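Fold this sequence, please.
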Amino acid sequence: MAAMEVVWDQISERDWTRHARAPLQQSWAYGAACAALGSKVLRAEVWSGGRRIALAQAVHRSFFGYLHAAVCTRGPIWVGDTTGEERRDAFRAITRSLPLPWTRGFFVTPDAPENEATHLRRARLRRVMTPYTTAVLDLAEPTDRLRAALHQKWRNRLVAAEKAGLMITRADRRPERYLWLLEQEAKQQRARRYAALPPALVPAWQQAGGDLRVLTATQGSETIAAMLFLIHGDRATYHIGWSSEAGKKSSANNLILWKALGKLRKAGVRELDLGGLNTQDVPGIARFKLGTGAEVKTLCGTWFGR
């Protein structure tokens, strides 16, 4: 087995973004946005025998001023074909080479199913959080197949919304035009007491070169619902959704999401990540995502090494 070499913080944005199917948290713009908000971002290239086999982006976290952690979410990105031994050695090499003080640790949540756990265990990492589950829509499917895949209740709500006379509009992408939606998201986070990425990430993402789409639903002169999607390469992630009571009654978000699929496809998006499924705390949101017919994707959990 060739020796592993990890090179930190030398890769260019152009070289990184060639890997367009990176999940949101492994996109260059996400790292740049985190850096703009005050976090230290670490980017690793893993080489084996002169061949680059992986990229990994991690956000630095510090605790009590002397404990340091690198948090790698939905990574690494594997480049080309890799063997199980190469993945094991890559996890080990990243952990050991972290450019942080010695009181450090590495948390990684790979964008991979349970069979990746074998390589993580062999790299002497241990699981510290249970698997994460998300819902993913394949937008390469024809429109008629996407519609046929909708669950019956979801489709019924969509039909009702289509008949309700709602207007779906693609909003101006200038930050000042969607600031109101970020304010609604902040209110939702406080009221429902859920943890999520800070609303300020969105303008920082856009400033870093990231693309986005905002769609709103209006009834008469009143805005009753909105959704915001972040685009990274040929993938997109559903990021924020809001609905007033009128929006909920008219199933406005069903219509917004359905219209968004077509607009995202026109933007070159081939896969939409609807985000995590939490059937215990927010079952209604989980049912909404699953009702689209999206594929349920369960990752192998969060692992720790030092």
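The first strand starts at residue 4 and ends at 8. Residues 141 and 270 are 9 Å apart (CA to CA).
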